[in-house]
Design brief:
The complex is a heterodimer of chains A (418) and B (289).
Chain A (H helix, E strand, L loop, with lengths): L3 E13 L9 H20 L12 E13 L3 E5 L6 H8 L7 E7 L2 E4 L12 H11 L4 H15 L14 H13 L5 E5 L7 H16 L3 E5 L3 H7 L2 E6 L2 E7 H14 L7 E2 L3 E10 L5 E2 L4 E9 L6 E9 L4 E6 L14 E8 L7 E11 L4 E4 L4 E6 L30
Parallel strand pairs in A: 3-7, 3-8, 5-6, 6-7, 12-19
Antiparallel strand pairs in A: 1-2, 1-4, 8-9, 10-11, 11-13, 13-16, 14-15, 14-17, 17-18, 17-19
Helix pairs in contact in A: 3-4, 3-5, 4-5, 5-6
Chain B lengths: L19 E4 L10 H6 L1 H17 L6 H21 L9 H28 L1 H6 L6 H8 L2 H17 L11 H25 L2 H15 L15 H4 L3 H14 L6 H32 L1
The chains are: A alpha/beta (418), B mainly alpha (289).
Chain lengths: 418, 289
């Protein structure tokens, strides 16, 4: 492996279903152990076949994943939710160990699976930079050296000695990113994180990452934002149900992936984030079966809190199929959601009086927010919907030259000299 | 040995000079990874510093808390055990007899509580970043040292008040301090790792510390235990710590002797056992916590 930075050989990871949610109480273990001999006795007497003590179903989050990444390559990992992307990153960044297989990584590994890991709201910006830096694996001297650069990058010079609990969410996110993008390991592993923050700042982060990429640094990136992936990565890897189903040149990989999504429709399954469950997302036009341009549209999002959430908020973004964000609404701008107790549900309805989207396929992404704890949780999937052909613009079919946005306008003509 | 490679960084120098990180499935008992722990010493420092800073930032009385708790415990003990109960105190004024023991006790009890809950309360960190997990309970234990230092100043003041001059024995005090910290860490490692798997542990801790307080010669001297059996008392390592503190500071009691030896051995066993148990369980923390 002369210039191979990451070699992944037959990596598999098995989870027991429900393992993540349930922890066991000692009581159960004790009663289990006490009853075990009786159970065995009974089954011997009755001549029953021996049943395994717990018939646990398990699944493979990663199944025989093998690939190599060359030094200096920027590789994008794409796939549906639950395809194993996050698990793969967790294995590569040593957060969890593989059940089978081997990984060799050449050089220092830095992983960025969440923005602002370890940020403490009580501490000032300055203190958090040092804390977060050291959590991400930077030496203190390194943070000191880059401190001014980090603060300048985050554009919060004035507030650096204010506790971050007083920061606006934008400032908070910018500072957290600023620390993260100044991480300089030989191998950088990045999960979805670059998708938050305002567009301007996102661009800045991408530029910085591209610079880093040119520095012969190897980057592994997970994102749902296909446009970003196309931009930054040179190669791609598609995961499906824990297996690598495609890999190669990024454009080919993304195209074939998008073609596959279009064929599968939304399914009403519930999705969980850390503190919420998304029970249902419905896009509908009031009074009509289908969604049409310039018609009123309602987007219903039903959520259930997994813990008590004092100040919940919901962000809903509308994206093109390749992940370009077109527009978004935040619930808080219109009304505040009352505190949600653990287990209680709420239905948030976004109303669009006149949908400015041209016919075509779009997707909705949702972020769920816990304002008190500064938690921004991506719902790890998008919800596709279709805007169907409408009689506007003379009822003709519009092609891609018209873009995505419908303009509620018109055109007129006046002959000036006849 | 393949089994010892479990999820640890084997940094082998290569011709290109970049170290190669090998990730392998974890099987069986892992090595302690003390080398890696040393590499991450700065993180230990920062996490400890965070715990201390945050604790005092949000409290109205700040560092005064470090004093209030042992001080009022001492007042209550002096009143009920010393004055009304007539508890012997080896010829030392009862208040200072109790306070001297309450200091290491508070350090221990606090460290035990914090470290046992440390993995669960740092869940976000554990599921998102890699670092040697041992750092989490370690920093929780160390963060109590500042409280101890503050309360120690009060103790010195009280010693002056009762005109007790420390003797040369005071140089052995750090050893007993280390013993107290090691006891807390040893037990804390077991409990924190168990706490990830079994949340019952959380409810056990307040009960455990209460029980342990009465099994430790804080309110009474260990000399009320018959001489013949006193070494057995060392099975409770905090007995060794507390008697050691009194001996090093007050020099009026007998040296803890056999009791201390037993305590040291017990602490060593708990600590080493705890380290290995922790390292073994560590591989599943991120999946379970």
């Amino acid at each position: 492996m002369s210039n191979v930075a990451i070699r992944c050989d037959g990596v598999s990871k098995q989870y027991r279903i429900g393992e993540r949610e349930s922890y066991r109480a000692i009581r159960d273990v004790i009663t289990d152990t006490m009853y075990a001999p009786f159970r065995r006795l009974r089954s011997t007497i009755k001549g029953l076949p021996k049943v395994p003590r717990e018939s646990q179903s398990s699944f493979w989050a990663l199944d025989d994943v093998s690939f190599e990444v060359k030094q200096g390559e920027v590789i994008g990992i794409i796939g549906h939710n639950g395809a194993g992307k996050s698990t793969l990153l967790k294995v590569l960044s040593r957060i969890t160990s593989p059940t089978k297989g081997e990984v060799d990584i050449r050089g220092r590994v830095g992983s960025l699976l969440e923005v602002g890991t370890g940020f403490h709201p009580e501490l000032t910006g300055r203190e958090n930079v040092f804390l977060n830096g050291s959590i991400l694996g930077m030496r203190r001297a390194e943070v000191e050296r880059k401190f001014d650069e980090i603060v300048a990058f985050a554009e919060i010079e004035k507030f650096i000695d204010t506790p971050v609990k007083r920061y606006s969410t934008g400032m908070y996110v910018r500072l957290a990113f600023a620390v993260a993008v100044h991480l300089e390991p030989e191998v950088l592993i990045v999960d979805e994180v670059l998708a938050v923050g305002d567009a301007e700042f996102q661009k800045k982060c991408f530029r910085k990452m591209q610079e880093v990429g040119k520095d012969n640094r190897t980057i592994l990136l997970v994102s749902h934002n296909m446009a970003a992936i196309r931009n930054i990565c040179s190669r791609g890897l598609v995961l499906e149900r824990g297996r690598v189903v495609a890999s190669g040149d990024i454009d080919n990989v993304v195209d074939s992936y998008l073609a596959r999504i279009n064929n599968s429709q939304a399914d009403g399954e519930t999705v969980e984030t850390e503190s919420y469950v998304v029970d249902n997302v419905r896009v509908g036009s009031t009074g009509e079966q289908v969604v049409k341009t310039f018609n009123p549209v309602e987007i219903n999002i039903r959520i259930t809190a997994k813990t008590d959430i004092a100040e919940p908020d919901v962000y809903m973004g509308i994206l093109t199929l390749d992940g370009q964000i077109l527009t978004a609404l935040v619930c808080r701008d219109f009304c505040s959601i009352p505190a949600l107790l653990k287990g209680s549900s709420a239905e948030v309805t976004f109303k669009i009086n006149s949908l400015p989207l041209l016919p075509g396929e779009y997707q909705i992404e949702i972020h769920l927010v816990d304002l008190v704890n500064y938690k921004f949780e991506f719902v790890p999937r998008t919800y596709p919907f279709e805007v169907v052909e409408t009689p506007i613009y003379g009822g003709r079919k519009l092609d891609r030259w018209f873009g995505h946005i419908g303009l509620d306008g018109g055109a007129g003509v006046q002959i000036l000299n006849s | 040995m393949e089994s010892n490679l479990a999820l640890e960084a084997n940094q082998v120098e290569q011709p290109e000079s970049l170290p190669i990180l090998k990730i392998r499935p974890s099987k069986g008992w892992a090595s302690l990874g003390l080398h890696e722990l040393w590499e991450y010493r700065e993180l230990l420092y920062f996490l400890t510093w965070r715990d201390i800073k945050v604790r005092y930032k949000q409290t109205a009385l700040g560092a005064t808390w470090a004093v209030i708790q042992p001080f009022f415990m001492m007042v209550v003990f002096s009143l009920f055990f010393g004055k009304l109960g007539g508890m012997p105190s080896d010829g030392i004024p009862y208040p200072i007899f109790a306070f001297c023991a309450l200091l290491p006790w508070q350090l221990f009890a606090h460290a035990l509580l914090e470290s046992s809950n440390s993995l669960v309360s740092n869940e976000r960190l554990i599921t998102k970043v890699y670092f040697p997990r041992l750092i989490v309970p370690m920093s929780a234990v160390l963060s109590g040292i500042v409280d101890f230092a503050i309360a120690f100043i009060i103790l010195l003041g009280m010693m002056a008040y009762y005109s007790i001059t420390p003797t040369l024995m005071i140089i052995t005090l750090p050893l007993f301090l280390v013993l107290a910290v090691m006891t807390a860490l040893g037990v804390g490692l077991w409990l924190s790792a168990l706490n990830v798997q079994y949340r019952d542990v959380r409810y056990t801790i307040s009960f455990l510390t209460q029980f342990w307080l009465f099994a430790t010669p804080v309110a009474y001297p260990s000399s009320i235990v018959p001489e013949r059996w006193r070494w057995l008392y060392g099975l409770n390592p905090m007995a060794g710590v507390v008697e050691g503190f009194r001996w090093a500071l007050l020099d009026k009691t007998e040296g803890p002797g056999a009791l201390l030896v037993v305590s040291v051995v017990v602490v060593f066993l708990i600590l080493v056992g705890g380290l290995y148990y922790f390292r073994r369980m560590e591989q599943t923390f991120a999946d379970v916590v």
